[in-house]
Amino acid sequence: MRLGIALKRFLPDFEARLLLRRAINLPRDTFDLLTRRRDPLIPPRGLWFVGGEKDYAAINEEFLGYFVNLGKLQPNQRVLDVGCGIGVVAARLTKFLTTRGSYDGFDIVRVGIDWASDNITRLHPNFHFKHTDVFNKHYNPRGKLDPGSFPFPYESGSFDFVFLKSVFTHMRPDSVQHYLREVMRVLKPDGHCLVTVFLLNEESKHLIESGQSSLPLSHNCGEYSVVDPEFPETTIGFPEGSFLKWVQAVGLRPESPAHYGSWCGRQKFLSYQDISILRRAY
Which residues pair with 127 in a beta bridge? Predict the structure, then answer.
């Protein structure tokens, strides 16, 4: 069992996991603070509650390339980051977006939003972060809002580019379908949306069954499959046909076939997760 999955299973309380992470990283974070080694737009190691600081700069460059080359992102456009975490991608975008462009991000973890607002917005006032009190078993178990119905806190037709990086990989189908409806609503008529997902098709299912996948999405729950049935939101994959049906049902369309990832052990891939670029169908 991967370390991250095991930690969520055996220490499901988010606050406890964050406290453990802060304690483990306290010596290095203190050293960075005293020596001023840390980029002021990058959070201390103890606050990284999703992903990790390892190779973050290379991953940011990788995804900026996808935003520009696949999602047609321009420096003067308005960007929405759904599930922005603690603002690590936002930090990279501060060097890409001009003052004519803007960035909005929202997340369910308040500590991330507070840190990003205090440290990124302070230096870049066209970058904005909002906390949304949406329920999630692993990250916001006392959240009051239903992920299958809450409205994104933005006006319709507001954004040129929307991205959801490692968001649908932790959500059940009803919530994914609602988020897709909200993406359709806030996207401008000529806008683009980039989402990362784990798509289950003949190739990925064969690789999972043969033990080659880094994520054994082998527990079938009907409309989705999971790694750990006791804690399904840890990692979720969807049948590719079902995902395309959900996309089309809300008025979106894929701009091209999915760009498949390496997660399942395939030899030809673009990134780790599967990437889909969506446009409004009308």
Answer: 103
